[in-house]
Amino acid sequence: MDRDNGPRVRVPEQRAPHQQTADTDLRFAVLGPVRAWRGGEPLPSGSPQQRALLTALLLRDGRTATAAELIDAIWGEEPPSQALAAVRTYASRLRKILDPDTLVSNAGGYAIRTRPDALDLTAAQELAADAEKARAGGDRARARDLFDEALALWDGEPLASVPGPYAENQRTRLEEWRLQLTETRLDLDLELGCHAEAVSELTALTAAHPLRERLRELLMIALYRSGRQAEALAVYADTRRLLADELGVDPRPELSQLQQRILQADEELAHSADEAAPAPAAVRPAQLPATVPDFTGRASFVRELGNRLATAEGSVMAVSALAGIGGVGKTTLAVHVAHQARPHFPDGQLYVDLQGAGARAAEPETVLGAFLRALGTADSAIPDSLDERAALYRSTLDGRRILVLLDNAHDAAQIRPLLPGTAGCAALVTSRVRMVDLAGAHLVDLDVMSPEEALQLFTRIVGEERVDSEREAALDVVAACGFLPLAIRIAASRLAARRTWTVSVLAAKLADERRRLDELQAGDLAVKATFELGYGQLEPAQARAFRLLGLADGPDISLAAAAALLNLEVHAAEDLLESLVDTSLLESAAPGRYRYHDLVRLYARACAERDEQPPVERELALSRLLDFYLATAAGVYALERPGERVLDHFSRTEYPGLTFRVRESALDWLFAESSGLLACARQSAGIGMARRASDLLMAAVDLGESGANSHQFATAATAVSEAAEAAGDAQAEGRARTMLTHVHSVSGRFADAEAESRRALELGRLADDPVSLGQAPNQRGIIALYENRHADAESHLTEALAAFRADGNRPGEASALCNLSRVHLATGRTASAVDLAQQGVSIYEADASGLALRLANGKYALGLALSGTGQTGRAQDALTEAMSIFRDSRQQLWHGMTLFRLAQVHLAIRQPAHAASHAEQALAVLRGIGGEWRRANILTTLGRGLAGIGQTDRAQVCWNEALSIFEELSSPEANSVRNLLRPASVAQAS
């Protein structure tokens, strides 16, 4: 039993200096079968004894081996009578194969002279040494990568099938070194916060090496840091029982101490090395935006807020909330005060724009995820739910002095989860609404500037010389701006950029608007009046772009999408947009991406309603944008699903989209444009374009299976279905509801999915829509299958099959066949299940691409059917191929589900360690998606695998969690899990 205290790597042996070989193309391998190559071509290595001779020479690292040493290495204490002659024969044959200058005779013995990097073992030793140096130097990430490179050089069992005592000893030594390297690399994984990812590998390794305590220790740490405390303790219980039964000993003290730390919920143990001792930048976020150099006035507010922040130490967490109309300078004041208060918050400052004034405010869980990452929390350690993230956030801030600036909040409910809640921390909040329902907050109402402050701000931007000579005109300008800071800043900046203008010119330009500004200075329209100044100076083409671009929903817009909306070539659109950026009316969010400040967007839309003539131009612009998204998304869909007939039933588009030749680029575009695309679908449905909007959702269906986009997708599908229903468009509503069915099914909400699919089918019949007539019963069949309503499932899928065939939709036909295969499998008709799945796969394989996403669906069904007939080898092949395609296509749900099915296959062939490993991987891939029902099924299979490798305590933890889920969902699977938890069943499983 390995009872050392840590994962230090012992490099097998020191190498002697090498002499240069005459043949620099020769390479040798011993970390697997013993092999040789010249220039990439394999060389024959001869009989097993000849390979044993080659092994003995290669592992002497260039030193000479005598004939007696070689005889002992090959045959041990009982060599044949002609052993010396045999050695000479083997050496002669190897010399002919390799090179006379490579295998040389020396003092009655032999040696191999080759360059240092010709042997894979030498390369592994050098990589391991470099990894140790990187680790000692604090570069853990590089060290882990180098250890991975070293381990990748192994190709199965070292010195495989090489006979002799020397090879056997070396094989044992190399296997032990490989394990040490693996332990060290896993230790680095945990130090780097990759604990969730390490659980799967450690589960498999503890099954393969059950008495190796270091692996058990690493598994306990990985589980504990993944939030699975009960499983971590169960690993210790399993280990203690195994050691007592097999060796009659107790676990080593380090393992017992680890158990105690887990029982005590040791906070230090819960964090990786990177989290416990992160780099200064990670633990001291400095996210405040730059303060403006010309900050003016607000002295009483600066003093009031500064005093509250300065006294936050040792007191209850201080919250100050600034409220006022848009453009009144809330953010500028808050940022200025926050910078002055930085010395009082040495542990850092956090900042976020909550987008409260926009149509879609930032979600608290998203903000908490960003804050936790800024505070040094690894992605894998960030929980999914809002409550869990808020709790971890407060725990992370405990004992620190952090200032949190929450800018542009929508309401108190949005910011409550974002408040630190600990003494010594403070929060500054800005919002358009007064936070009267935010308990304990210090409320500050920010009004417009005084005339003196307004003139001072104007002077700082324009310059004293220009203002002093025209003081009265300057007073006229700031009065026309309603003394609103944002309005003054925009007007002054425009004047400062035009040296030929006088202040009087600017005042005269504002004169016509003075009455309107006087009337509207008490609200947001004061901002609108100020924007009129900048808008009025635009060239006609700029003004048109400014108006139309503001019509599009979504947080930002890409250059290509903007060009479509404006009906311009990309280069012409870029020139216009960059000129608007120069005027500060538009922001460049990133290269090739643009966005409006929320107030400017509202003003741009008002301009469009007022100035865009004829009015139909507004609708045409949004129609072009919808066409662009639909045409491009349809192209992505076609690359992923060649031959799919649904594309033929999409609405015709007038404006073209982007085209992609590579699937990877197409998927990159789809996921990068997800927010804008889904916002376009929502918006278009509401203005009479529900039919194309529903088609856009179908083309972008991959977003519905992405954990990051599924909520947005569901929101868009709901909006489109409601708009279509209001418009009486049965086809659009039916298609939108098929997408809602899909999202609900992916999330495990089967009752909701069934209701939507039933309505979708009714609408499909009403509209005689071949898309809904095929997809809706297909989806109903899948849902019924999940709910064990097999007769219903077969009926629905038979209906879908007929609809797809009537439409000539071959991929749809294959989908229905594969789903029918699963029904036949569930009802014991295994032979027909295989036949149906094979029919589906044959249709998919007939497609020229050969790697279409739908082929993975077919292989998945075929793998299940083959497994049901006991053809586990073929089942594994089919499922492995499906998993590869799902992974490459970013189908996270089906990637995880295929791992789960592979785990079930491994259970069937009595490979519980592999089953547990695949089930762990499935849980990791499906974090945040798939729903609790799927998670419970995977936990059940994981428990079976763990029980099969003797980890019964941990298995029971998994089963108990699965049982809780099934009982909450009232799922019939609960009964089988209860049976597993009976003592007799647990004992039998192990």
Q: Got a strand count?
A: 14
SS field, number of helical segments? 47
Mean pLDDT level: 85
SS class: mainly alpha
Spatial ordering of strands, largest sheet: 8-9-10-7-11
User: Residue ranges: pLDDT <50 for 5 or more in a row?
Assistant: 1-22, 276-282, 513-527
Task: Walk me through the structure.
With 990 residues, the chain is mainly alpha-helical. The protein is 62% helix and 6% strand. The protein is built from 47 helices and 14 strands. The two termini are 22 Å apart.
Summary of the model, kept short:
The chain is mostly helical and 990 residues long. The protein has 47 helices and 14 strands.
Structure keywords:
62% helix; 14 strands; 3-stranded antiparallel β-sheet; 990 residues; mainly alpha; single chain
Task: Record the SSE blueprint.
Layout (H helix, E strand, L loop, with lengths): L25 E4 L5 E4 L2 E3 L4 H11 L6 E2 H9 L7 H15 L5 E4 L2 E4 L7 H17 L3 H13 L12 H27 L3 H14 L4 H13 L3 H18 L6 H11 L9 H4 L3 H4 L15 H12 L7 E6 L6 H11 L8 E5 L10 H11 L11 H12 L5 E7 L2 H4 L10 E6 L10 E4 L5 H12 L1 H5 L2 H10 L4 H12 L6 H9 L2 H7 L4 H12 L3 H10 L7 E2 H8 L3 H13 L4 E4 L2 E3 L2 H14 L4 H25 L22 H10 L1 H12 L4 H10 L10 H18 L2 H17 L3 H18 L2 H17 L3 H18 L2 H17 L3 H16 L7 H16 L3 H17 L3 H17 L3 H14 L5 H18 L3 H18 L3 H8 L2 H7 L1
Parallel strand pairs: 7-10, 7-11, 8-9, 9-10
Antiparallel strand pairs: 1-2, 2-3, 4-6, 5-6, 12-14, 13-14
